[in-house]
Amino acid sequence: MAFLVPFDGTYLAEAALMRASEYGEALEEDVIALTVVPDHEGYAIDVGWYETREDEPFSVPYVAAKLREGVDDIAPGATFRHEQIDDRTPAAIANRIKQTAEEIRPSVVFLGTDNVGEIAEPITSVAGGVAENATYDVHIVRYYAPPSIPEVRLEDGSYRGIDEP
C-alpha cells in the first residue's frame, strides 16, 4: 500500500505531503508525490511554476524538476512522479490523478485544499474530482500546521497532557 499526494507546490500541498510523510513513517507506508503538469506555458506561469526565461525555455520536464526539488525538501523519502497532460482544466488534472490512483491503488490520498466547502464541485476543483472516487480514503489537509492536542485520554480513563511523560 501507499499514500498518494497530489503535489502542485502550494503551501497546502506541501502540508499534505508533510502529513503523509509523517503518517507514512509511523505506519511504514510508501509516500508518492504526484504532479500533473499541463503542457501549457501560460498555465505554468499563472500557477507560479515557471517564469519566462531565454536560458531555460518552458518544458514539462523543467517544471517537474522544479517541483521535485520541493518534494525532496519536504519528504526526502517520498517517490516523485509527474504526469504530462494537454488539457489544463481542473477536471482534466483531477482525471489524471484518479487514473494514476487506479494504477497505484493507494490506501489514502492526502489532499491539501482550503476549499473543502466546495469539494462537491468537481468541475471547478481538482480536489473535488479526486475526492469523489470511492476506492481510497481521502485525508484533507486544510492547515499547514496540524491542530494542537492539549491532552490525550488514556485507556484507564485519565487524561495526560501531550508534553507530559
TrEMBL record:
Going by the entry's taxonomy, the superkingdom of the source organism is recorded as Archaea
Under the heading InterPro entries, the entry gives:
Rossmann-like_a/b/a_fold, UspA
Gene3D superfamilies for the chain: HUPs
Could you tell me which residue ranges the UspA domain spans?
A: 3-142
Protein name per UniProt: Universal stress protein
Protein's organism: Natronococcus pandeyae
